[in-house]
Every structure is written in structure tokens, then in C-alpha cells.
Amino acid sequence: ESLANTIMKIVVFTYLLSTALAGNIVEELTAAGATTLVDLVVKAGLAETLAGPGPFTVVAPDNEAFAKLPADLLATLSGDVELLKKVLLFHVVPGMAVMRKDIGNNMIVPFPQQESLHIVNVYLKSKFYDGFVTVNGKLMKKYDITADNGVIHILSDVVYPFPSATITELVAGDERFSTLLAAVSAAGLADTLASEGPFTVFAPTNEAFAKIPKDALDGLLADTEALKKVLLRHVLPTALFKKGITWDTHSTAGGEEEDMIATQVFKGDVIKVVSSVGGTRKGARVVAADIIATNGVIHAIDTVI
Predict the structure, then answer these.
(1) What is the pTM of this model?
(2) Which end of the chain has fewer surrounding CB within 10 Å, N or C?
(3) Is 274 helix (H, G, I), strand (E, B) or coil?
(4) 144-154, pLDDT tens digit by residue?
């Protein structure tokens, strides 16, 4: 018997053995070192559920992810079993075992119990690189830990809070964006930014609009078409979370070639967005990233581009 055949048999046998010996979700989480998550699962009375037939897909925050949570939030979760249960189940997709190869960009996973959802993205994918995955902007750092009742992917952060408002609702409810809200309403874009998406909005703050001379701003707010064009240049027809922002150019909802914008990333967590229209170059800095909506994500910026 050839050596190649023997090796092949050993490989196949080892594979079958490893699948046959895979424990359930709780056992595999323990083996993967996600012990804080397991302790909380037990505390919330979910251990039996996750040891049940499944199949489940679990996006599992590692111990460091829980250690990063604010102490008062951890205390709240420990003291409120119902909320804890809700938060933990926001990391479990029942009824399916979704492997890494099945994950696509801008996938939406609904969570009816939390009245919320996951926006799942694959960034930097090319024919040379598999890219990486984020869940509501949180990085998936390890994939495809198989259990006998599902699959586990390890996350760098806890996916919390639950997104519950659209981009339009978030802008309306945040005083940093009151000028933007007026502009969006004047341009008739409120319904668009409340629609399914997912979108990315580079949202100029009130300070950003205040940099525009008053006459020019009043003129812009009165000219619906011009206003619409400027605003749509701040919108990407995809969800681009902070972790996915690189040195790149992006087509915007403006649609024209001159409406394309560039993103730039510098040391010290500095992210810039640049437009170039009619030979005029404008740059803005992201001042708050990953404000998460049910239909995308907002990054607040300090200048209108």
C-alpha cells in the first residue's frame, strides 16, 4: 500500500474521530477557553438549552471581551437574569450551523426576541485573502469550532447594546445631529435613511455644519437638488464598520464618479474621509465611530465633505 494512501486513510480517520468526539456547544466553549461565557450561560439557566439538539451557531465573546465590559454593566447583567439571558441569546442563532464559508457581506440576522439584529460583514476579501468577519462591527477572531450540536465562532467583543433604531431615528434622537436632521428632512431623504439598507452614513455634526458660512448654508438648505447631492455623498450603500475602514475609495449613494469618497486610516486611531468635487478637496475626521442602527452604521464627522 502506498504511503500516500496510508496518509490519506489516517487523515480521514482523524477527521471522523474529531467530529465524532466533538462535545456539545457548552463543552466546546469550555475547551476553547471561553469560560466567562460558560459561567454566565450556567447562571442564566441556558446550559441545558445549549447542550440540546440544536443546531446552533454561537458567536462567542472570549474572556477578554467580557473583561473589557464596563464594571457597572457586568454588575447589572449579573443581577438581572432576564437581561443576561437576552444578551447571551443575542449571541446564539438557533436552527442553523453557519460555517465561515457560508458568511457573506451585509448579511442581516434577525433577533425577534431582542427586537434587534446582527449586521454581518466580510471585509478585505479578495482572491488572495479570505478577508475577515465582523458582527455589528465586532471582530470574529476564530472560526468554525465544531460541536456535535452546532458551530462556534469566537468574537473579540460582546455584541451589546441591541441596535433598535433606524439611522433616521438615531439622527433625530441625537442632539449632535440636529442640523443634519434638518438637512435630511429638507432634502426628502428621511424615508431613504429609514429604509432597509444597510447603509453607512458619515454624519456631519452641528459643528461641522457651523463651519459653512451662514449664507452658503442657507442657500444649500433652500436648494433641494444641491442639498440632496451633498448629503448622498456622505452615504455608502453598504455597512462599513470601523474595523472595516482602510485606505480605500468608495462609491457613494450620490452615484456619480465625482461623488466617490476616500477613507484614510492613521496612527492613533485617526480616521479621515475625503471628497474631491470639481477640483475642491474636502477632508473630515471621524469623531465618533460605530453608532449602530438597525439598517446600518453612523460615523460622526467634523466637517461637511
Answers:
(1) 0.90
(2) N
(3) strand
(4) 999 999 999 99
